[in-house]
Amino acid sequence: MANFEAYQEYQRIDDFEEDSPPGEEDLLVHVPEGLSGYDKTKTLDSVFLNSNIHIYQFHQKNGFACMMLSEFFELFQFLFVVTFTTFLFNCVEYDILFANRAVNHTGPGQNPLDRNKVSLPDAILPSQQCTERIQENSWIIFLLIMATIFWVYRMIKVFCNILSYWEIRQFYIKALKISMDELCNFTWQEVQDRLISLQREQQMCIHKKELTELDIYHRILRFKNYMVAMVNKSLLPVQLQLPLLGNLVFLTQGLKYNFELILFWGPGSLFQNKWNLHPKYKRAGNRLELAQQLSRVILLLGVANLLLCPFILVWQVLYAFFSYTEVIRREPGSLGARRWSMFGRLYLRHFNELDHELHGRLGRGYKPISKYMNSFTSPLLTVLAKNVAFFSGSVLAVLIALTVYDEDVLTVQHILTAITVLGVVITITRSFIPDEHMVWCPEQLLQCVLAHIHYMPDHWRGNANKSETRDEVAQLFQYKAVGEKGQTVNRDCSLAAA
Amino acid sequence: MANFEAYQEYQRIDDFEEDSPPGEEDLLVHVPEGLSGYDKTKTLDSVFLNSNIHIYQFHQKNGFACMMLSEFFELFQFLFVVTFTTFLFNCVEYDILFANRAVNHTGPGQNPLDRNKVSLPDAILPSQQCTERIQENSWIIFLLIMATIFWVYRMIKVFCNILSYWEIRQFYIKALKISMDELCNFTWQEVQDRLISLQREQQMCIHKKELTELDIYHRILRFKNYMVAMVNKSLLPVQLQLPLLGNLVFLTQGLKYNFELILFWGPGSLFQNKWNLHPKYKRAGNRLELAQQLSRVILLLGVANLLLCPFILVWQVLYAFFSYTEVIRREPGSLGARRWSMFGRLYLRHFNELDHELHGRLGRGYKPISKYMNSFTSPLLTVLAKNVAFFSGSVLAVLIALTVYDEDVLTVQHILTAITVLGVVITITRSFIPDEHMVWCPEQLLQCVLAHIHYMPDHWRGNANKSETRDEVAQLFQYKAVGEKGQTVNRDCSLAAA
Amino acid sequence: MANFEAYQEYQRIDDFEEDSPPGEEDLLVHVPEGLSGYDKTKTLDSVFLNSNIHIYQFHQKNGFACMMLSEFFELFQFLFVVTFTTFLFNCVEYDILFANRAVNHTGPGQNPLDRNKVSLPDAILPSQQCTERIQENSWIIFLLIMATIFWVYRMIKVFCNILSYWEIRQFYIKALKISMDELCNFTWQEVQDRLISLQREQQMCIHKKELTELDIYHRILRFKNYMVAMVNKSLLPVQLQLPLLGNLVFLTQGLKYNFELILFWGPGSLFQNKWNLHPKYKRAGNRLELAQQLSRVILLLGVANLLLCPFILVWQVLYAFFSYTEVIRREPGSLGARRWSMFGRLYLRHFNELDHELHGRLGRGYKPISKYMNSFTSPLLTVLAKNVAFFSGSVLAVLIALTVYDEDVLTVQHILTAITVLGVVITITRSFIPDEHMVWCPEQLLQCVLAHIHYMPDHWRGNANKSETRDEVAQLFQYKAVGEKGQTVNRDCSLAAA
């Protein structure tokens, strides 16, 4: 029953927003003689068919140099993580680093009074010994081969991307007359105006004489609008009812990627050419068959996810370790930072709202919603945190006093570790203890949030101080750490079952 | 003369606020049949006689679990401080920690190339040697016995408290229908409404048919209102005229405790049953005799304070060391933080203002008053601070440069201590140097403060930039550190002389 | 042609603001009998002729004690930097500090089990050896002699200053009836009112009966107003057109000092008695000759600057090292802090605006202009910074993990250095990565800035997001670090050529 209703809603959306304007299938690009010295037909064609969206992204990502650099660095990061990890696991003599074994530097020409200093190269194995160790371990070799294959695939893709960026760069320079140096001075509004006036002059896109702002928005946001609609109508299985944890929202980058693969641009998806809905989906008779076909695609994708899972897990653990260890050491409070959740970003998005508009709107709401979430403190946790802080602080106080009196204490094993760990523990616990001068005014804060996110169900009104309201807001505004950890979790089963 | 005037004022207050409503002495609690399965008569009786105030505190302290946990942790903190201190003084071999004496690990099975690492257990004496040391020192044994007696007394009291919390918990659940999980969602306003409607339905408290908000406020704030009145009329000896330091306000937690003991609920106090004024205080003829009796009580309390002083001092020094050493290390700037002083909290309190209302009001005023106080900087201190910072910074710069060049410098004795101490010195001095871009607008800030604290004598108006105004504000808004150190000072003499 | 126009403008300024009121040349100070017990004639004379400006500075610098202390500390800082540097270069045995050579403490009475601790005195040479080393090095001796000469000159000047401060102090106490304790309670407005009423009563300054606020402002700001006019009319060569860097503003403390020396109070300057324009500059016939004479003065000053350059450079490098190393270590982010530039302070100054008024106005504009400047981020730099932060963070993560596991890793050479350096690198790179929740609203921020600085050329309006606008704002609001480094650069050539 619920499914049927949802289906009817789906139909209505379909009717309301015309899938593709009549005649757009047989586009023809007509380029006047004005733009010489550059293969216009090809460029304009590809630009206008696939990629108003690319023009937009090119502007948002600040032009060719930035995009190219990002892509190269991404490649290099992967290479670095793989080789550095391999190096750490195979080529370091940890016994020497940890001073469990002394280094013997004594040679004939050395003064016996000189101290025996251990330097970093002493702890690194010679490269020959190192390669031997790697060759002995078949697991590592297997992982390295997998990584190489993935890396080569990525490299080819990066190469293709860069070619297409180059075309868009030429389009900006030749057609829109915007040089790369000036790009950062142009707002998207201004770029769009140039695009529209270009169309008026040169009729690049034949099926329509006048290109309006709405046309451009529609092209850029084609799939985004579908996603927003599906999330608002709860058609995607992102809200789970778990026995103990209650109503939970689960939507990670990975899951979103999978959804988009299935629906929009994967093999066997509902759309063709990254633009038009397959004609067969428009006939009511095919429905059952197509549903089975889609279910098969989802199952296959689930299996693929399951197989790739261990590799992705290893990669994400390594990447998180390299990225966040230092952050946690420096400011452990960042563990408690929140950001708009993936779900919130879709749920709160308006139809036809571009990325930078959404980003600006949610950015303006960030401060009040952070304050709102932070103004809730669990009293039980506060009592616990205060006491843990006291006990850790006591031990730390003694260690600090001893160290100030004579810093040789630090050479005793694990004293430094203890100081570091206690310091981190105290910083974390302190973040749970609310400021004694905090003013508690959830109702006003929630009003401020509303002013920017434009969403407030009736049962929030007057209940801003209730924990239920807080939990619902938390679905939109998630812990950063959760958002990132959550990505490693596998969701194949639920996908296959959907 | 002044005394007589004060006395007349006192009489007027007495007349104005009727001490106890007629007939309240012979209360009777009538419980209907509706509340079954729980000994209502007893609970409701105790709840309604002594402790509208307990219902309020139970709500403010977030329910049974939090209160119980707090009490247990308090017991445990005492235990921890005592045992940890005893352990540190008797069971640690500091010579080994400070590397004045080497540890001899050499055994037959050891590789001579292995480094001799000192681990923490090496520096801890075996338990037998440890107990011997303690048994030799009779002072420590005496202190330990005192501590044990105090701890057992505390434990019994905690046990009684928990029983009474349990009763209030039952009252919340059975009578007010508020489960403990939901408690944090209820504001005190809502709890109070339930209390009033409960009275309307079930007539728990017989002498009055309708219970109003004012009745409840009066019950909760009975003693607080008296204190506020006495502070406002300057009846309590909290303002001292010292020869050099000028007008000083001295009101610590300990002094307030003593005042309350004398006036409200100690043995020989003015009130009986923690509620009614003794009838004998109402007859004018007794006045001289009663004054002598009170003076005797105060003298006795002063002597008791004097005797307990060394123990309290030792405890407070230890507690402060364990609590604040780490804070000072981490952010020495917190030494300069201020908070509303005990005196300010009483002086600025309205009659019939509950704790959370006062807290919210002063909390809203915290930011402007902090800014106001911080905008005053002593120019002389600034010059000194800048130069101390420069000289410490110079030495530190050299040490840092040497360390970065070769970190073996750190193994030289006292270098690390020097770096730490210089770092702390610089942070402290920097806090005395005002920001060069600070905007100086004391008049506006004081207006903002006024908006929340609702108090501003005429001679402040237009003189916000004067140092006298600043000093008077400082009486209400004290250094945190002073507030906490001040508690250790003994006030027996002034008490006895009062 | 341009020169002629500039000259005409100069003439108009000259005409507009009467150089000195008629009759002021032959001032006479008349002191009534009322002020007894203090040599009024001399004091009031010097006070009123040269130094309304001194009265103002005395108030702004918070009175005698602060000014004296500042002067003494400045002397002492110089002494300290010179001796400490000499000490560091000649009297420290770095081999022992860096543990390249072991210390031999072994004596007959020593326990062989005792560790060999290196203490700081071990690394310091005995004073005899130290002086020998210094005597061998003739360069150091030369520098020391130069420093001594400069120091003695400074000391004499400080002594003179203090004498004049003392006179002003007496003037404040005796004539204005403001004691030094109360000085900080007086605003300049109030001091000025007293000055005016004093004149009304006692006719200290004869050529004018009534002294108005404007008179006092004119006296204090005589030279400042000229400087402001010259900067606004672009008469001073502070804006350079460099081939690669574009339009650059170069105005340092040193250059400003040179300008003032040439124009106002150096030998051969345009003004006599620090107050009146030389009469010869008023005759048009002398113009060519005077211009040549001025050009000669400038050339001489340029040569003097060139000769003193190496000494000033050495001093500034040393001073910067001692002052900023520790700051950079503690908060490397302060490298990116900005302040109103010297040029901005002159360009944005109103005529007849006192220092504290300008300071307050620019201080109020500090926050919005900082936000405005910080809201610009170079996308390319962001990509680079993110990746540098990732790679440094990865290595740091491994080092932290190793250290937490076993802190003996720290004894390996250069590990601690690596941790420190990587930490600083990461902090610096992080400061280039914009906050992801930042809201971009340059237009509003620039409006806020305008409200305080009262300056906005037409081409900024509506172009607040353009990088050209940002660059122009940056001329007024410079990196602190640049402002301080820039001072070391020599500008003789451009000066001589001017």
Largest interface summary = A-B, 47 and 55 residues
- The share of residues in helices of chain A is 55-70%
Beta-strand percentage range of chain A: under 5%
Rounded to the nearest angstrom, the distance between the terminal CA atoms of chain A is 16 Å
Tell me how many strands of chain A there are.
6
Evaluate the radius of gyration of chain A: 29 Å
Q: What sequence of helices (H) and strands (E) makes up the elements of chain A?
A: HHHHHHHHHHEEHEEHEHHHHHHEHH
Low-pLDDT segments of chain A: 1-47, 107-115, 485-498
Give the quaternary arrangement of the chains: homotrimer
Give the number of helices of chain A. Answer: 20
Spatial sequence of strands, sheet with the most strands of chain A: 1-2
Pfam families (chains A, B, C): ATG9 (PF04109)
Family (chains A, B, C): Belongs to the ATG9 family.
Main location (chains A, B, C): membrane
Protein name (chains A, B, C): Autophagy-related protein 9
